[in-house]
What does this fold into?
Amino acid sequence: MSRLQGKVAVVTGSGSGIGQAIAERLAQEGADCVVDYRDHVEEAQATVDKIVAAGGKSVLVHADVSILADCTNLIEQAWQQLGSCDILVNNAGIEIGADFWDVTEKDFDAVMDVNFKGAFFLTQAFVRKLRDAKKPGRIINMSSVHEDMVFPHFSTYCASKGAMRMLMRDLSVELGPLGITVNNIAPGAIATPINTKLMADPKLLDPLLRNIPLGRLGKPEEVAGLAAFLASDDAAYVTGSTYVMDGGLMRNYKEQ
It folds into this structure.
């Protein structure tokens, strides 16, 4: 597969889970990949090693997307080390659960800074370089079913994903004339390390599976396949859309 031959992708939070699967899939399709990490360098290095072992080209860059200077540097490193940056996948994200009346300013800022502010300013840095180079590009945001669907006790997470939905729609209009597309992927329950506790506890997992018409969790590789499509010329006329990938959960969800 070589739909992305000659392209360079930045994938944030690509040390594990969905981000890792996306970086590996984009590399399989021919893209050179910048793997980003904040805390777990060993996991991120493992992603790079897998890409290189498979014959791809990848570099490792430390960046905390909640810090503006790190966002700018991450894009700059893609251009310096790999010669371009054609695809941006805003995957890095966190969630902190709390009753609404107990949410602290610190936790509010932590979630919004990573999930929304980081994606906002990383996208800005990405777009500025493409605009100056007069090149088209692809922006893929890893949103969530919770850009639409309620998630009680996770108000900050829902707010951050709702903001990402509106930003994507707005930028699809503003960036369209530059040849830059922007779309969201909204996963439901995916079998990733963040859900280890859920997957190990039948009392938590079984009620969720009953709400999913397909009766199973999604796989990171399935999300990565959709990301590869959106990054490719197969999706050249696709912008301003959210692609829900949840096994039917949103259509069947009932709060317990």
In short: Strands lie at 8-11, 32-37, 58-62, 87-90, 137-142, 180-187, 242-245. DSSP finds nine helices and seven strands in the chain.
